[in-house]
């Protein structure tokens, strides 16, 4: 069987198919830059429902590009996110993805308090002034914790990708968070996940590459 | 806002919700063990369509459990899969996830031949007799390459999780592969991805844990 072998051809053809099948009314509601994020999320999931679930609040792409251009730490709530983000672009920008769920002190404290490790890990991130962005792809508890810290004035992120997935708390955590006055990309409802979070950040990286 | 904080409670409640909302006719078509995989994939994606896209062919769960119990190498086509699989269970079983896309020789050869790195990386896996399982979550080209190698009698995997995602070649690669007489879990159509591949393997790990 014949198939396209060159990676660049595959991506171009994929984006063409996505544009031809996505709901035109929904697609028209996004800016050019937002469309790049929408397309990459659909490319990653093969799920067109994301076009109607993605929300861009308070200029997240512009704010993220500005922060990332300075070289910052980005907190991610899973190791899968850490592995999925383009390492060459991270290095070039002087950025780093951090996450503390496997740290000994975090594991100990989570067990003692009977709460999730992701929650304790996130509190550790709040104390690091170099952490300017948050990618939450898995744990609703992490997003609830971030929302509370923003409300209390403890942190003021430059950008948040709020896409935890699941049936218990995920939708509620995103609804709660969406009231915050913070630059953010949000997937409404139950859907989301690590690959979606990665797609959002990588899309912003590609936009930055195009401006070089 | 109040929310469930204990990880075990969250998972139990999620599975209860999934069972109450999944199409009962589709769900009844699976064995008890297959249902554990279906539930975990839906838990990971919040996408109930997976119940009607997942196929189990030639006893993949029994064959995977047998192979994994002996301690084998499992090839994965992305680093995200490698990061997502439960490291404690891997270690306990003496299993290892391998992947060669970042190897210098693979990068060089892919460039020279003008084909994807995942394709060259996979050919390298065929030459390693310890590789008994394959998790393909991203690249259709990897699955096409695996299918060809099985047809040619070059490899005979104990289990394959065939869930590449995308718009160019993904559905075709899985349709082609499904004709092979190999124990496999397949997601039909365009959907799939690294988190889906991880969910399948982790579900099998949980089944093995329950038997200890």
UniProtKB/TrEMBL annotation, chains A, B:
GO terms for MF: precorrin-8X methylmutase activity
UniProt keyword list: Cobalamin biosynthesis, Isomerase
Keyword Lyase assigned: no
Domain Cobalamin biosynthesis precorrin-8X methylmutase CobH/CbiC: 9-206
Claim: Isomerase is one of the keywords in the record: yes
Pathway of action: Cofactor biosynthesis; adenosylcobalamin biosynthesis
Assigned protein family: Belongs to the CobH/CbiC family.
Protein's name according to its UniProt entry: Precorrin-8X methylmutase
Species for this entry: Alkalibacter rhizosphaerae
Species lineage: Bacteria, Bacillati, Bacillota, Clostridia, Eubacteriales
